[in-house]
Amino acid sequence: MKPPAYETKRIIVVPTLPTTQEAAFQLSKEELRHYNDEGYVVVRDVVTQKHIDQIKARARQFALGDLPEGSEAMVVRDVRVARGMIQVDDPEEGLWKFMFPDRYDELFRKYASTPKLLDAAQSLLGPDLVAFLTMMIYKPPGVVEAVHNYHQDAYYFPFGPHDLVMGTWVALDKVDAENGTLRVIPRSHKLGLVKHVTPEGSEINAGVFAVEGYDESPEEVVVELEPGDGVFFHSHLLHKTGGNSTQRHRRVMTVHMASARCKWINQPIHYFNMRHVRGQTYAGCV
């Protein structure tokens, strides 16, 4: 997959009042500065514990085979489990992710409309928002090899401008260096898109690309989060997740956000499951 040929002058986010819906929560000027300068910002308590418990309970049902009709492809096992390289007694401990659970389940469909999630996104991208590529992602306990190498999400996205596209990564468990939390290279969002390669080896999950030369970078920041905390990051920010050397779960919810003013580079691609979640829509845009 080639990166989208989309070049644009960087857009600096400034605090503005919403024009279509008043946000109950807004990022501070310092948080906006951090996002602009460093490429990411940590927001505490994005999701409540009650909401987390509901997500975990529904995910447990899915893992045990209680699935919505026609949703079998949503369940993606870790490649090591799928190939019989690792045996697990608990099927949930063998998962890589639930892909597009919002297509099949109301609880997951509503996740992208979580109020504080949208309010923070509105502070960064403006009042008109589209959500896409919803996933619940696991790290199998005790599998230190389950590494997702450094990459830029925008490599996958054939629409832009990329300054108006970002990822959101919300912890459902306590996440740290030992169980596979997010690691970032601050200020790498200013590089533009860089070359990605397909990692070699039989233990690489399908569809994964990587950027070489940044592992063990002295600039790397390990982002540790409590359940419900989230990271909002620019689509060009280099980021990775490590393996899970513990017996603890590492479950996170991810959904990407884009300004509803973004445009496709060529033809629209329905794969991303884009849904308008706040503000206005615009003709000819995503």
User: CATH-wise, what's the superfamily?
Assistant: q2cbj1_9rhob like domain
**Assembly classification:** single chain
Query: If helices are DSSP runs of H or I spanning 4 or more residues, what is the number of helices?
Result: 5
| Broad structural category | alpha+beta
**What's the number of extended β-strand segments?**
14
Through-space gap between termini: 20 Å
**Unreliable stretches, pLDDT < 50, 5 or more residues?**
1-9, 13-19
Shape: globular
Question: Roughly what is the average pLDDT, rounded to an integer?
Answer: 91
Name the helicity range. 10-25%
> How much β-strand is present in the residues?
15-25%
Cα-based radius of gyration, to the nearest Å: 18 Å
Number of domains: 1
Reading off the top of the CATH hierarchy, the class is best stated as Mainly Beta
Annotated CATH architecture: Sandwich
What series of H and E elements makes up the topology? Answer: HEHEHEHHEEEEEEEEEEE
Largest sheet: 8 strands, antiparallel
Q: Within the CATH hierarchy, at the fold level, what is the topology? A: Jelly Rolls
Structure description:
With 286 residues, the protein is α+β, with helices and mostly antiparallel strands. It has a single domain (29-278), classed as q2cbj1_9rhob like domain (Jelly Rolls, Sandwich). The chain is 16% helix and 21% strand. The chain has 5 helices and 14 strands. The chain has helices at 29-38, 49-63, 79-82, 106-111, 115-125; strands spanning 40-43, 75-77, 95-99, 129-137, 148-151, 159-160, 165-171, 182-184, 221-222, 230-234, 239-241, 252-259, 263-264, 275-278. Strands 1, 2, 3, 4, 7, 10, 12 and 14 form an 8-stranded antiparallel β-sheet that branches. It has a 4-stranded antiparallel β-sheet with strand order 5-11-8-9, with no helix packed on it. A two-stranded antiparallel sheet has the order 6-13. The chain is globular, with a radius of gyration of 18 Å. 42% of the residues are buried. Residues 1-9 and 13-19 have low confidence and may be disordered.
